[in-house]
Known about the structure:
Blueprint: E1 12-15, H1 21-32, E2 36-41, H2 44-56, E3 61-65, H3 71-85, E4 90-93, H4 111-137, E5 140-145, H5 158-177, E6 184-190, E7 193-194, H6 197-200, H7 208-212, H8 215-222, E8 223-224, H9 226-237, E9 248-250, H10 254-268
Parallel strand pairs: 1-2, 1-4, 2-3, 4-5, 5-6, 6-9, 7-8
Helix pairs in contact: 1-9, 3-4, 4-5
Amino acid sequence: MAKQPVSLGGRVAVITGGTRGIGRAIAERFGAAGARVVVSSSRPEAVERAAAELRARGVETTGVPCDVAERAQVEALLARALSTYGQVDVWVNNAAISGPFAATVDVPEGAWERVIQVNLLGCYYGCATVLPHMLARRSGKLINLTGGGYKRAQRFLSAYSASKAGIVRLTEGLAREHADEKSVSINVLAPGIVDTDMTNEWEAVGRAAEALKAFPRVKRIFGTTAEETAELALHMAGPATDGVSGKVFEVMPRHRALWRLATAAVGRR
């Protein structure tokens, strides 16, 4: 029997970092499923452009500039969503930066901290801001995106790895704290290596530049797409995760990664 398509009709979804890459793909997929979408980014011009393009696709959209590293701006993002639509049903903490591709001791001053502020604190601010609303309504889906390093540290990306591992622990902690409140789902989405601006525009520093030369081949073997991530995000936003919290949903699970590796090895013969 064919799977029933997920409908988000009547739902409101907020997506941080929603103007490009994975966030934009999620916004488009949620909109196609009937959701009213709020997209945000730290760049006002990108927000305006993305909102206009989504509306042109028939998606009811509001764009809100927001630097997630500033808690007051995250709170303002929620306030704008509520004043516009009256509710938030799905909140996706997607906004992230990679920081320099560099040995930890070579990272320029302030750059390591900025990654933590945007990725980890930004996710925390989103959770802490929207969860009271969802808990009060006894309804909601909170989706936190992780990335490379959440299982094992990535060389020359120590801040990014630390932030993404921290997001998993944060999500698990929240899930345990609210284990009795089955109406709100709090989960992690792991996209894998996606071909986006972030993975194409590394700022290599020092000896890390040589290691970066191997990355295109790694991406070819293990790469996933923003559309695959968006499809999994839609699954997580739907009834399949009712009563489910503290779980990591992977676009590239271990068995799929091993198959890709084996296929690449055969291809080299």
